[in-house]
Amino acid sequence: MDKKQSDHDVNLKGTLVSVFFVGIVIVAMWVAVYLMYLAR
Amino acid sequence: MIAQPERKIALWHLGVAYTAFLIGTLMGVLQVFIRNDALQLPAWLDYYQILTAHGVLLALIYTTFFIFAFFITGMSKSLGSFGPKVRLFSWIGLWVTLLGTVMATVMIVAGEASVLYTFYAPLKANGFYYVGLALVIVGTWISSFALVGHYMVWRRNNKGQLSPLFAFMTVTTIILWIIACLGVVATVLFQYIPWAFGWTDTINVELSRSLFWYFGHPLVYFWLLPAYIAWYTIVPKLLGVKVFSDSLARLAFVLFILFSIPVGFHHQLTEPGISNFWKFLQVVLTFMVIVPSLMTAFSMFATFEISGRQKGGTGLFGWFKKLPWRDVRFTSIFIAMAFFIPGGAGGIINASFQLNEVVHNTLWIVGHFHITVGTPVAMTFMGLTFWLIPYLTGRRFTKRMQRLGFVQIITWSIGMLLMSTAQHVLGLMGAPRRTAYSGYNDHPSAMEWFDGIISNHVTMAIGGTILFLSAMILMYIVIMTMFVSPKAETPEQMVEFPLAESDMSHTPKWLENWWIWIGIAAALIIIAYAIPLTHMIQHAPPGSKGFITW
């Protein structure tokens, strides 16, 4: 029970934002090349 | 400290790895100067020879020997000293791999094997080049079986227990490697060697490429997983915390056994001999292999945040400032991870079927390679080298060496940013890969590629030169920590093997039931490959004779 409690107490908001950042990089690069593909 | 015999085996591996690194990086800097017209090679040496040597010595040899040095040290550290048989077979593995390396290198230097590291047929090298490569694989198998034997002894003596995380990850990587090598062994033994020695006249090109890429993509993960092992098991120790989640780490690794192999067709999306259905299926499976990498990214950020908050970091990103930036062992690996964000994103583009047409035969791929294996993997290995060699030699990692370590990783980052960005941009404009510089008879379209500030041969050459200087600084650190630095005399001076604790109390036992994972992997491989490979054999076009274009 203590273990579960301490797991929930961990603040991982920065991690959430960071993984969103990684996601945005992936999507942005992908869309950029996709637009290039459409334009050619 | 681990036992002396294992230290000796690991140090020999590192010695060979860094000899290959020295020659391989020299071949790299020669290329950028040749492409810039700043250097004319002597008549006995050509561009494709040095391109082949660069790829083989860095991508295949440096990585392989380094990985086994890391595995041998880590397995001895986490499971205890090797028995006499494990030691013997580790030595035999080393010598067989080295013999194969020397044989392949001699063929390249002799101008008999300018076929690049992918050795695509119908380019035909001297048969002994392929024999050398086969020996490299056989040698790694011997070393692999030695380590698996050591692991099995541990399992027998610790029935019902999960193995330590480092050992689990090492065995995962070895399973992946052995399954992957089956493809390249098949093509080298049954296609290339008989053809190169003239026992058969022609070769089935599409089949040879498909078997190569059955091996070639998991080869990427054979490089990457040891880096991930460091990220999962070493980094938390440097940060003063436990592994974020033992179950997540193990699950991520077994997913690589499943999804890193039945995906080779995404390297062959432009090839006509494979139907779209099979290409598409393997593209889908390729997207599955992104999942464990994203799990790794999440796990790393969480490790950083937990550590930073424990040290007093507040707010959304306060933890970031609390990370141990003055510790070169950490900073090197952090930069390696940062490079993997655009590197991984580029990989998703490459594998995205139609998008592959934009980048396929261009310098983009070369740039991608340099910000995946050339930095995330290589710089993680550099970060490990800083402590691994002094740990094995019992020498000190002095303040001066630590400062030089920072200079080395920063110069490598700057050089790589310049060179790989130039390669990515040039590739998007259409500049080809795998070829020496060509101006296409000064055609205006081709000339435009090289007019930009970034997309310029000079930028690439500056980047390449900085990289070479960085490589030489690393060589200096390697030589100093191997032979010259003062011996550690007090416990504070001893360099440790920073292996993090991992809480296994909630980890399900089935994660270490290898037959489940090998079974599912085999099923996926059969689904993805059985029909298209059968088709390639049954409906093979006339084979090709060999071409020696150099």
Commentary on this structure:
By secondary structure, chain A is an all-alpha fold. Helix content of chain A is 88%, strand content 0%. Chain A has helices spanning 2-9, 13-39. Chain A is rod-shaped. The model of chain A is unreliable at 1-5 (pLDDT under 50). In chain B, α2 (47-79) runs antiparallel to α3 (84-109) and α2 (47-79) crosses α14 (373-393). The radius of gyration of chain B is 23 Å and the shape is globular. In chain B, 53% of the residues are buried. The mean pLDDT of chain B is 96. Classes of the chains: A mainly alpha (40), B mainly alpha (550). Chain A binds chain B through residues 10-15, 17-19, 22, 25-26, 29-30, 33-34, 36-37, 40, and chain B through 294, 297-298, 301-302, 304-306, 308-309, 316-317, 319-320, 341-342, 344-346, 348-349, 352, 354-355, 357-359, 428.
Key phrases:
heterodimer, A: 40 residues, mainly alpha, 2 helices, disordered N terminus, B: 550 residues, 70% helix, globular
Radius of gyration of chain B: 23 Å
Shape of chain A: rod-shaped
Query: Could you state the oligomeric state of the chains shown?
Result: heterodimer
Number-wise, the strands of chain B total 0
| Biggest beta sheet attributes of chain B | none
Q: Which spans of chain B of ≥5 residues are poorly predicted at pLDDT below 50?
A: none
Give the structural class of chain A.
mainly alpha
Helix content of chain A: over 70%
Largest sheet: number of strands, sense, barrel closure of chain A: none
User: What is the end-to-end distance of chain B?
Assistant: 50 Å
Summarize the structure.
Chain A has 40 residues and is mainly α. Helix content of chain A is 88%, strand content 0%.
Helix and strand arrangement:
The complex is a heterodimer of chains A (40) and B (550).
Chain A: H1 2-9, H2 13-39
Chain B: H1 4-35, H2 47-79, H3 84-109, H4 127-157, H5 165-196, H6 205-239, H7 246-259, H8 276-288, H9 290-310, H10 318-321, H11 328-350, H12 356-359, H13 363-370, H14 373-393, H15 399-429, H16 444-449, H17 457-484, H18 514-538
